[in-house]
Structures are given as C-alpha cells and as structure tokens.
C-alpha cells in the first residue's frame, strides 16, 4: 500500500518536473493521520505537492478537464490522443478523488481475461443484471453504451500498462465481472497510479490545488472556466470544450440531506472533495439533473473510521452474521438489499467473517488489519469470544456454510455466487460493519456522447461530463464495480468527443 502511495507521489513529482522548473514537495498537513485512516488506500489526500504552476498556464486550451479523478484522467488522455491541447485542474493537493479510494474492481463482460478463465459472459447479461440491480430506473442508452464498451476499456487500460487481470464477483452479478489488479491490490491506487504515469508520458499538465469555481458562458455556449490556480490566482481559462469530471456529492451533507433527509448523520466513505461542485456549476449554466434522490448506502462500512470494507471480501467468499452468530441474508444481493438487511438486525450492524485462505485471496484484508478494522483468532470459537458471540452458534453457522459450499446449494439464503471456498482455515477474522453513504447515482444529464443536456434535452454547446458527476447509468442502485467501468468508458468517450468537437473534426 505504501508502495502505491509512493508511486503516486513520485508520479506527481515527476509530472511537476515536466511542467515546472522547481517542483516542491511540502510535507503532509497535521491531520494527515486521520485522513489516511479514513481512506481505503493511502490516498495521501492531505499531502501537498505542487504540480504545474500559474507560470505554466496558457490562456487557452482545446480541452479543459475539471477534476483529476479516474474519469478526468481517462478523458484527458483520450483528448490528447485525438490531437487536442489539454489541461487538467484539480482542487485537491493530489490527484485521484474517490477513484483513489476504490478498492474492488471494474466490471466488464466478454473480456480476454474472462475468456482465459473460461468464464462465459456477454454484454447483454451485464446490461440486464445491471438494469435489474438499478430497479429498471437506469438510462438504458447510457447503460447499453457502458456495458458494450467496458471490455474494450479493460483492453485500453492494458495497452497502457494497467492490467486488471484477476476476477471476482460483485453483488447482483451472476458472473465474475469485477476485474482487479493481478496482485490483488485495491483497484483505485493502481488505476490512478497508472493513469497518472500516462499523463506524465504525454506531458499533460495537472494544476493541483486549483479549484474551478465557475463555467464561463457566452451566448449560451461554454467558453472556458474560472479557476483559482495554486489556491491564490483567480484566472479565466478559455477552452474549445470543457469536460466536467468532478465526481459526486457523497461528502456534501447539505446536498445529501436536501435529497434524502434520512441520511443525516450517516457516515460517508467518500473523500472530502466529493462535494458536487461540477453538478452545481452545470446547473448554473442551465444543465439538467437526474436521479439525485438515489444515494447509495454501502452495507459494509466500519463505522468508527468511516472505512469501506470492499465488496470483494464477500465476492471472494466471506459471509455476514448478526450478533447472535447467525447468517441472515444472501450476502451477494445488490447493495441496497444487503444494507436494508443489515439495518434490520439487532443494533443495525453485522460482522463479516472470513478465514486465512480468504485473506490470502484478498490482500486488502491485511490493510484492514493494519488499520485496526478486524479482529482475528486462531479458532472460530476464540473469534466468537473476541466479539461477544455465542461460540457454538457461530461454529454451527460456519459448518452449515461449508456444507452449502460443498453441496453448491445455500438452502438457508439462496446465495449462488462466490461459493467456491469453505471457511475452515484459521486464523479467522471478523469486522463489525454497518451501512454508510457511498455513491451518488444522480448527477447531470448526459447523452452517450457525454454532451451535457439542458432541461429541454438540448446539448449545451462545448460542455461535456463524465463519471460520478453524471447521472442515469446506475438507476436507483449502483452495482459494485460499475463506477470504475463508468469512469473508464465515459471518461474515454468524453475525451474523444470533446477533442473532436474543439478541433472541428
Ligand atoms: C471507498 C470507495 C470505494 C470504491 N470502490 C469502488 C470499486 O471497487 N469499484 C467501483 O466501480 N467503484 C468504486 N467506488 C466508486 C468509484 O470509485 C467512484 O464512483 C469513481 O471513482 C468516481 O470517479 P470520478 O472520476 O467521477 O470522480 P473522482 O475520482 O471523485 O474525481 C473527481 C475529482 O474532481 C476533483 N474536483 C471536485 N470539484 C472540483 C473543482 N471545483 N475544481 C477542480 N477539481 C475538482 C476532486 O477533488 C476529485 O479529485 C468506490 C468509492 C469509494 C468512496
């Protein structure tokens, strides 16, 4: 994990070197420890680096990208490849946003990785199962575009040295579609690191600590952005096209409670920059929004540290038990169903239970251990004692589960996926979890060309959006692994479309 952080920091410094003569690296802010604890990967979001500075800034670019998360970085690379001059503005001191925290994988169907593992899959079932998970509320054109282009996204990443070569299950998916880094590390740090390396190779400037505050408009056309560069200089930068990739609003409690007052006081897994800026700026120039009320709570969040325990833990074989030591649900149903199930249990929480073999399959568990998120014991009885659970009940729950795995039939709860491994190898581990705010499915309305639409359904000239800023593709409930698919697929599309538009192609 530290290696990943190191890689990212080194990349930033290298990139800084490409765009300025004397890049400096300031030390972490005082609250860095707290922030690192909250992050799934060592986001380093409190580290302060200098990337490009105002001296490097040009008056005008073909394409300006707002936000250096996965969606923004993918779009910048594609815009560059299409021949455009590009700059990225990022308000935080480090790139990555929520992408850096993503810990599971990227869904895709019909990939060469699946073929090599003899997984028979196709975009059609990916589409249907996602639609089902989203309760049929998904924008089907966007969803069709994503499910049909995700496999190519995996190949595109691979062509740039970012190989997602391991598979696991996500809740609601009948096939192992979540593509993860081959070494089992969290997808986010690996992806951000790889995308950043590719920005660096192309000398695409990233202006860190540079918050975009407004989209500049002239006669109904977006002509650029107003941005506070290096947290000091307010400037207007002109652009042939602007791509807004500022992520969602999962860390903006005013917006969260405006759309769902039940979520007041619920912990969030999001990075502090996920404040919905892009959505608000787009609304200010007449952009429409969709599905804003659909805010996902993820079932497995460590409450004390607002820390997500990845779905890949269940997707690789873990079970959930209540305080009585009993299973109560098919753990791999979609997130909204599992969250509701956990909330119904006594105390509104549950425990994830896994064993040493699972820990080996999902190295992120080591990281959870380092962060103090799990308890461990050599035997299942000792584990039960650690978490005040009846040892006999927990032991018989494990026996029943292992029998279900052997028989390939979960008579108690009907689980059908990630039932390949018994839980019988000590030491065993447990993590107490409960639901937390995780993803904002709503956002600005776009079409499959990623053009932002106004309230009459017309494209706002020169304005594009991609990633969690945009709404519609996930419907009422996002499937794990589909957000990274979204940022890669639509990030790429936004880059290509914006560049072609700006260049008059
Ligand atoms: C803990 C966690 C784990 C997750 N795991 C997975 C997973 O395994 N698989 C999956 O598919 N999805 C996962 N997700 C969801 C997924 O990571 C996000 O939906 C996705 O990465 C969002 O990417 P993005 O590029 O749209 O936004 P982000 O990655 O959030 O990037 C947006 C960037 O824009 C910047 N920004 C915001 N406002 C401004 C402004 N005004 N000016 C300049 N910059 C601005 C932000 O600082 C940020 O860097 C996870 C999310 C979290 C929180």
Explain this structure to me?
Helices cover 36% and strands 20% of the residues. It has 505 residues and is α+β, with helices and mostly antiparallel strands. The protein folds into two domains: 1-9 and 44-293 and 441-505, FAD/NAD(P)-binding domain (3-Layer(bba) Sandwich), CATH 3.50.50; 296-437, Alpha-Beta Complex (Flavocytochrome C3, Chain A, domain 1), CATH 3.90.700.10. Helix 3 packs parallel to helix 17 and helix 6 crosses helix 7. The protein starts with a helix and ends with a helix. Mean pLDDT is 90; it is low at 1-50. The structure holds flavin-adenine dinucleotide. Flavin-adenine dinucleotide is lined by residues 40, 66-72, 89-92, 96-99, 101-106, 187, 211-212, 245-247, 269-270, 273-274, 277, 308, 439, 467-469, 480-484, 487. Flavin-adenine dinucleotide (FAD) is lined by residues 40, 66-72, 89-92, 96-99, 101-106, 187, 211-212, 245-247, 269-270, 273-274, 277, 308, 439, 467-469, 480-484, 487.
CATH topology of the largest domain: FAD/NAD(P)-binding domain
What's the main sheet like? 8 strands, mixed
Distinct helical segment count: 17
Ligand kinds: flavin-adenine dinucleotide
> What is the correct CATH architecture of the largest domain?
3-Layer(bba) Sandwich
Q: What's the helical proportion of residues?
A: 25-40%
User: Radius of gyration over alpha carbons?
Assistant: 22 Å
Total domain units? 2
In terms of per-residue confidence, which ranges show pLDDT below 50 for 5 or more consecutive residues?
1-50
Q: Give the terminus-to-terminus CA distance.
A: 43 Å
CATH superfamily of the largest domain: FAD/NAD(P)-binding domain
Task: Note the beta-strand portion.
Answer: 15-25%
User: Class of the largest domain, according to the CATH hierarchy?
Assistant: Alpha Beta
Mean pLDDT: 90
What coarse outline follows from CA principal-axis ratios? elongated
- Total beta-strand segments: 21
Overall SS class: alpha+beta
